[in-house]
Amino acid sequence: MAYPKRILVLGATGSIGTSTLDIIRNQSDRFICCGIQANSKKESLLSLAAEFHCPSTLTADEGMDGIRRLLEESKPDIVVNGIAGSAGLVPSQLVLEAGIDLALANKETVVMAAPLMFALAKKNGCKILPVDSEHSAIFTLLNQCGRENVDSLVITASGGPFRTWPAEKIRTATIHDALKHPTWNMGKKITVDSASLGNKGLEVIEARRLFDFPTDKIQVVVHPQSIIHSLVRTKDGIVYGQFSEPDMKHPIIQALDFPQIHADFMKPFDLTDTAGGCRTLTFEKPRYDDFPLLRLAFDAAEKSAAYPIVFNAANEIAAWSFIDEKIAFSDIARIVEGVMKNDWSGEIRDMQDVFTADTEARKQARALL
């Protein structure tokens, strides 16, 4: 595709949106911001629109008809979906229905409705390009090594703020403790999910669905430095990894440029670029007993059907209840497990089935608060 590419940014004032706009700001010869949407005040969007000479804007209160209008008006080559939570699902659907490539940071699109989304992309001749740092790394490694040569996937996890805490202390963690992430600066919900390893659980479900690997071929490894973003193990037992600084601009640029690789404005990664002249990279096994959401996510990925939808919905209710200081940190996993104990094996045939399972799971989660 010719440059400059026209980029529509959904969730423009969040961490993904802000990083995307910074890329456009620094590489205006290659990227144009043709439209922006945010769950934000109109004044903030108008300020961004003025900076990027972007005539098409949308606030969240304008709804899904507004997304359709924005897609028609802005005529993007690719859409970056940085909307947080299940609210990002229908915008992804609308992008793919319009036959536009989707740079996807919204986990829920894949967790809740991957088969439906991939069917839409295939039907309309467009691509879904992962923007999560872990899935971007796996996507790149699979392309470079050859999907047919890869035996298994290794997803790295920072371990979050409670990685070294004893089990009894984790159970009494406060929201203020949970928001002190050692590596990433993110929104409240995803930061809490990182603390509980619920976020890593969602990434396991994503990997299962994005790359079609069985759950017994997906491994999680705790890597506190967040330098290696994921790895693949080829059939001869050799492991290949992707190294870069923990900056979300890297996977966003990869998605915007795919299938090409260009020089960019980011500082090249240097293994010795530290005060001590070298880097130390460490790896640990996850503590499944102390962070049960990770185990529950593997279970949801394995069972499929509506279980991934239920895991996500129950976790959203529980995590936000913890953020609002209505429940204890340990209650998050209790609520998710309580909802997942029920039978969610019904076939997901269309978006109505997705929303029905999501609504019922949320109802059951609220009953367990």
Q: Can you put this structure into words, describing what you see?
A:
By secondary structure, the chain is α/β, with parallel strands linked by helices. Helix content is 47%, strand content 14%. Strands 3-2-1-4-5-6 form a 6-stranded parallel beta sheet, with helices on both faces. Strands 8-7-9-10 form a 4-stranded mixed beta sheet, with helices on one face. Strand 4, helix 4 (89-97) and strand 5 (101-104) form a beta-alpha-beta unit.
What value does the Rg take, in angstroms?
A: 20 Å
Which residue ranges are poorly predicted, with pLDDT under 50 across at least 5 consecutive positions?
none
Helix content: 40-55%
Main beta-sheet strand count, sense and barrel state: 6 strands, parallel
**What's the tally of helices?**
15
Would you list the SSEs in sequence order as H and E? EHEHEHEHEHEHEHHHHEEEHHHHH
Please write out the topology.
Layout: E1 5-10, H1 15-26, E2 31-38, H2 42-52, E3 57-59, H3 63-74, E4 78-81, H4 89-97, E5 101-104, H5 107-124, E6 128-130, H6 133-145, E7 150-157, H7 167-171, H8 175-178, H9 188-196, H10 198-211, E8 218-222, E9 228-234, E10 239-243, H11 249-257, H12 292-303, H13 307-323, H14 329-340, H15 351-367
Parallel strand pairs: 1-2, 1-4, 2-3, 4-5, 5-6, 7-8
Antiparallel strand pairs: 7-9, 9-10
